[in-house]
Amino acid sequence: MKLSKESIERLRELLARPAQRIVILSHTNPDGDAVGSSLAWAEVLRTMGHAVTCIVPNKYPYFLDWMPGIGEVVVFKTDTEGRAARAVAGADILFCLDFNAISRLENLSQTIESNTTAVRVLIDHHLSPGEGFDLAFSYPESSSTCFLVYSIIEAMCGTEAITRSMAELLYVGMMTDTGNFAFSFLTPELFRAVAVLVEKGISIPDIHNSVYNAYTEGRARLFGYAINRKMEVIQNGTVAYMSLLEGEMRRFQFQQGDSEGFVNYALTIKKVKMSAMFLAHRKFIRVSLRSRGDVDVNLFARRYFNGGGHKNAAGGKSFVSMRETIDHYVRSVAEFAAEGHLD
Ligand SMILES: [Mn+2]
After folding, report:
1. What is the pLDDT of residues 230-266, one digit of tens each?
2. pLDDT digits (tens, 9 = 90+) for 170-212
3. How far is the CA of 37 from the centre of ligand 1 (A)?
4. How far is the CA of 123 from the centre of ligand 1 (A)?
5. Could you list the residue range(s) of the whole structural domain that residue 266 is in?
6. Residue 343 lies in a domain
7. How confident is the model at residue 104 (pLDDT cuts 50, 70, 90)?
8. How many Å lie between the centroid of ligand 1 and the Cα of residue 171?
């Protein structure tokens, strides 16, 4: 990954203005990469003398509660005091981290769209970025936004600017977005970055434990139920899917983030190349897609579920019933396979 020198210069100029009021936004259902990159970037900006507010549309999962500084993140959905709206209205610069179109912010997007003055900067690694950014760091070849933020800090200030808490935050996103360093885009640069974070004093086993071994008993039992009772394998054993209805989630005291990793599990079956998870929400069904190798679920999500993401990890939404959603998926898989996309 080669950062554009010109973009780094433009960012440097933008941040050279003293005491800017900055808002950092990240995506709905914020994950380790969204929260980690936002908080680490916030810390750098504060060191430069800027005032920073981090905003997410809804709550992050409970197993991220330990992350340094997470208490300061404003959750728009439960923000009864209007902190998010005030910060957005007063902002000089908006940073959009780990997502690529304001529309992805759901309820929060109206609040953003009515603000016309702030400079908009994108820092993201998803495919096909949206329009309307004054400056864009869009690098789909970066394994995480945390690695991208690391690389920007390195280019702009040097790694001396990275503190231990920033190192912990950045590691969380690098670890979670790569499935603990098992997916694609595992470059030598990434491991050099990890080496620098280790030099800053982070404990990889502690961070791993805090993120991956911090679930509730309900989550463990829901996982067993989902795999045993709800997983279906189709297309000659090469495609899997699973679904959870609201009642099923309630039975296991579901909390947001509990289904994290379920969709990946079907890919532990040798023949399975593509996996889907359908999770019922009040107003729609959230669709998560994973694949391995050349199977392009970004393309699949765009074509059949109005979504997108990365080649091997994407998502979308469905506004029909679970039954109809699954039927649509099965039909779409057959069409996709017939075109040779699953070979
Ligand atoms: Mn990410």
Report:
1. 999 999 999 999 999 999 999 999 999 999 999 999 9
2. 999 999 999 999 988 999 999 999 999 999 999 999 999 999 9
3. 9
4. 10
5. 217-338
6. no
7. confident
8. 12
Query: In this structure, which amino acid lies at residue 157?
Result: C
Domain match, 37 and 65 both: yes
Tell whether 164 and 276 lie within a shared domain.
no
CA of 175 to the centre of ligand 1 (A): 10
Distance, CA 144 to ligand 1 centroid (Å)?
5
Between the CA of 226 and the centroid of ligand 1 the distance, in Å, is: 25
The residue type found at 255 is: Q
For β-strands 21-26 and 93-97, DSSP reports them as parallel
CA dist list (Å): 225 to 79, 267, 315? 35, 17, 23
Same domain, 45 and 167: yes
Q: How many domains does the chain have?
A: 2
Which tokens go with 201? Answer: 């004093």
CATH of the domain at 102: 3.90.1640.10
d(CA 137, CA 140): 10
* Alpha carbon of 154 to ligand 1 centroid (Å): 19
Check: CB of residue 59 under 8 Å from CB of residue 78: yes
Q: What is the 138 CA–ligand 1 centroid distance (Å)?
A: 12
Q: Are residues 98 and 19 in the same domain?
A: yes
Same domain, 165 and 298: no
